[in-house]
Amino acid sequence: MNLIKRPRRLRTSQSLRELVKETKLSASDFVKPLFVVNGENIREEIPSMPGNYHLSLDELEKEVKSLMAVGIKAIMLFGLPKTKDAEGSSAWQEDGIVQQALHLLKEKFPDLLLITDLCLCQYTDHGHCGVLKEGKIKNDETLTNLAKIALSHAEAGADMIAPSDMMDGRIAKIRNTLDQNDFKEISIMAYSAKYQSAFYGPFRDAAHSAPGQGDRSTYQMDPANSDEALREIDLDIEEGADIIMVKPALSYLDIIQRAADNYELPLAAYNVSGEYAMVKAAAEKGWIDEKKVALEILTSIKRAGANIIITYWADQAAEWLKE
Ligand code: PBG
Fold first, then answer.
1. What's the complex ipTM?
2. Which residue blocks in the chain are alpha helix, DSSP H?
């Protein structure tokens, strides 16, 4: 055959393939979510998320040390509070679990980037992400409470706040509150296009945050929609978001790509609990190779256009990348 163009030429050796690789993962792409609980000496593995734990503060410190040893430089904190009420007031207590964790980590690991997930669902007794009255989520009343949480996180040492509630107007409200209290340098990573997804199942078991009644479809986005994601992102940018996010990642690579094509802001994608759990479960059965599949998934998320990947594989993937 007289073929002039032979794409296989660039695949002939490992070094050549490395040279022309378009997407390269690195530990600095990853953010590791961590679940903090009250108590001492607690390191309880989350059954549906093997390799992830409920950690008391002493164990959190150990966990962070080992994350940093493999090159992870950013974490996202989720708290499991002692008590829940209708409003979710334990979310903004000065000595709440996330606030305590922030104080500790800021002091012990000044170079670690501390991101907090900002939401009410772990703190309300009804499990919804907002103020609930007569079965309805009250958007504007919720904003007041979200701002209280943001301020308490900032005061405790958070570097970046990531609101995941999907209320309208929350980014403006939070930005405003932070600025008025002289936290102008704290950045906001907005869960902008957050879908009402069944892939959050394992997380809700882990965070004890499943809604008691109903679902989140009046505030999280319909998985069928794509243009709406751009409208949500537009609003968050107008309101002052520094980083935008698409969540989940794997079934939403098209949304990640559209966001990357349309906006210049750093783009995060959340590789959520269900995406992790299904790989873990299949790997446990010996049906797939966890390492290869996980790295392929993470590569696809970055290839689609995400600059930042929030993933339960963060530390494991960082180790794999060194091999
Ligand atoms: C809080 C929140 C959720 C996740 C991140 N922040 C759960 C939800 O919206 O129900 C999901 C993370 C995951 O599944 O890994 N609102």
1. 0.96
2. 14-19, 57-69, 97-108, 139-156, 170-180, 201-207, 227-239, 253-262, 273-284, 290-304, 314-322
Ligand 1 pocket check for 204: Cβ under 6 Å: yes
Question: Which residue bears the tokens 């809700």?
Answer: 204
- Residue 232: which of 213, 205, 255 has the closest Cα? 255
Q: Probe ligand 1: pick from 48, 52, 119, max atoms within 8 Å of CB? A: 119
Work out the average pLDDT over 138-155: 97
Residue 21 confidence (pLDDT) above 90: yes
How much distance in Å is there from the Cα of 181 to the middle of ligand 1? 28
The CATH number that applies at residue 153 is 3.20.20.70
Q: Does 194 participate in catalysis according to the annotation?
A: yes
Cβ of 190 below 6 Å from ligand 1: no
- Listed residue (301, 167, 303) closest to 232, CA to CA: 167
User: Does residue 184 carry a catalytic annotation?
Assistant: no
pTM exceeding the 0.95 threshold for the entire prediction: yes
Question: Does residue 69 lie within any of the structural domains?
Answer: yes
Q: How confident is the model at residue 205 (pLDDT cuts 50, 70, 90)?
A: confident
Mean pLDDT value across residues 44-64:
97
Beta bridge partners of 77: 34, 116
Q: How far apart are CA 253 and CA 245, in angstroms?
A: 12
Whether residue 195 has its Cβ less than 6 Å from ligand 1: no
The residue range of the domain holding 313 is 25-209+228-322
